Amino acid sequence: MRYAMAVDTKKCVGCADCVVACQTENNVPIGYCRDWIVEVTDGTYPQLEIEIRSERCNHCDNSPCVRCCPTGASHYVEGGIVKVTPHECIGCGACITSCPYDARYGHPDGYVDKCTFCDHRIQDGLQPACVSVCPTKCMYFGDLDDANSEVSKVLKKRKFKTLIPQAGTKPQVYYLI
Amino acid sequence: MREELITSGRLNPNVDPYLEIWHWQIPLYLFLGGLAAGILFFASLYVILGKENEYRGAVRRAPIIVPFILAIGLGALFLDLRHKLFFWQLYTTIKLESPMSWGAWTLMAITPISIIWVAIHIQEYFPGWEWKNVILRDLNAFFLKNKVGLAWVTIVLSVILGIYTGILFSAFNARPLWNTSILGPLFLTSGLSAGAAAIILFAQSKKEKVVFAKIDIMLIVIELFLIIHMFMGFRASTQVQIDAADMFLGGAYTAPFWIFVVVLGMIVPAILELMELRHKKIPVYIPVVLVLFGSLMLRFIISYAGQMSRWLY
Questions:
Q1: Which residues of B touch A36 (CB under 8 A)?
Q2: Is B96 touching A (CB cutoff 8 A)?
Q3: Angle between helices B66-80 and B25-48 (to 10 degrees)
Q4: How far is CA B189 from CA A7, B39, B70, B290, in A?
Q5: Residues of B with CB below 8 A from A164's CB?
Q6: Mind telling me how many Å the CA of A62 is from chain B's nearest CA?
Q7: Reduced to 3 states, what is the DSSP secondary structure of residue A36?
Q8: Residue A160, φ and ψ in degrees, nearest 5
Q9: Which helix (H) or strand (E) holds A143?
């Protein structure tokens, strides 16, 4: 089992519904976010291209945050999801520093927090909150080891990229281009 | 002109617009840890070499400050934690891939050893001191008898402590400025240099002072060599590391780094120590304070600049 997500940059309009859904679903403290929108404008005026992405933790296969955690609070769970156990976290900040995507933040309660791929919803057979609310249906979630999952099918069909592959983290959120 | 403009909707405190998760506590601790490692390294070195009586300042007197600076350093580390009541989780596991786990366990070992080291040399400061308790007296006799063994353990731990202060940073490939293996040796050398400088203040003979001034000059030369190598490596590396080096070669950190760390913290004290060796009258604490200041500034600047260096995508 290898959970992964694909985000279609051609469909994403940057409405930030995913951001709000995540904050609501996961009770994210005000002023913080586990997922966010990035807009990249590229080119020479007036020939400009814009790419919009909904970004979050990449649940990397080779996670620097899991590696550097001194207590084992950062760990992998089934399907390669990277999670933090609050009562094992000492809030040293090493994982926040180690993430090239800056996907983690210090929760006001002291421990470090991040995207969980909504694993509590997956267990109930639901999609992650961000995926389920997306009005343009630009996000796909599922098991990469299952050739019939939505994410496997769309990655077979479309060209895609990952973020900073040269950092060697083997990210598992794919961006369709 | 062709341009790429990246706009992010993320504004997490201490993470955006650039990382600011580690404040003064970490560089202060790294400096104190390096200084403690430096003092203990020379103290145990001269016990192993059998020259304890010639280097009384290094072996018996200077280590008195080590438990105190380690305590202040540990206090700073504790203040840095955001989930403080769970700090003991560090000692429920050993994670070989985590430099911070190495550091926590090394500190756990070296702090009591530094206290033992002070305890067996307490008569240096209080000549009439007698351990009243039988167990303490026996322990004292045991460690005095096995002092060379204790020194070997101490020297290994002090090198691990000194190198780890650099590796803590260099293990993060997310921060291109830190992601160089030179930081381990550089911080070790800087810690040894700070330790040698501190020992000069405790030196008991003219000869000891001269030897440690010479050691310090040598270590400063090695540090300068490592710094030049670090920037050569960055300039020859990927774009993100070229950008990281540029913070020091024309960017925001150019003036503080070259003035405080290199000129005031290395070159000026090296010249003053050289003049001292040539029998010019220099108040001994001036080069010592400058070396310690440079060592502290090196940690502060590398810590803050490293958090500003990043991958852009």
A1: 8-10
A2: no
A3: 150
A4: 48, 12, 18, 16
A5: 311, 313
A6: 12
A7: strand
A8: -145, 170
A9: strand A139-143
How high is the ipTM of this complex? 0.93
Q: Which residue type, as a one-letter code, is found at position A2?
A: R
Show the beta-strand stretches assigned E in chain B. 3-8
Delineate the domains of chain A, giving CATH numbers in brackets.
Answer: 3-176 (3.30.70.20)
Does B1 sit within 8 Å of A43, measured CB to CB?
A: no
B254 and chain A: CB distance < 8 Å anywhere?
Answer: no
Q: Rounded to 5 degrees, what are φ and ψ at A173?
A: -110, 120
Mean pLDDT score, A146-158: 96
pLDDT digits (tens, 9 = 90+) for B65-87: 999 999 999 999 999 999 999 99
Contact A119, A83 (CB under 8 A): yes
Rounded to 5°, the CA angle B289-B290-B296 comes to 90
- Is B20 within a domain? no
What CATH number corresponds to the domain at position B134?
A: 1.20.1630.10
Q: What is the distance between the alpha carbons of residues B298 and B190, in angstroms, rounded to a whole number?
A: 9
For residue A46, cis peptide bond before it (omega within 30 degrees of 0): yes
Band of residue B229 on the pLDDT scale cut at 50, 70, 90: very high
Residues B122-141, mean pLDDT to the nearest whole number: 92
Chain A residues whose CB is inside 8 A of the B89 CB are 71, 73, 88-90
Domain-embedded: residue B14:
no
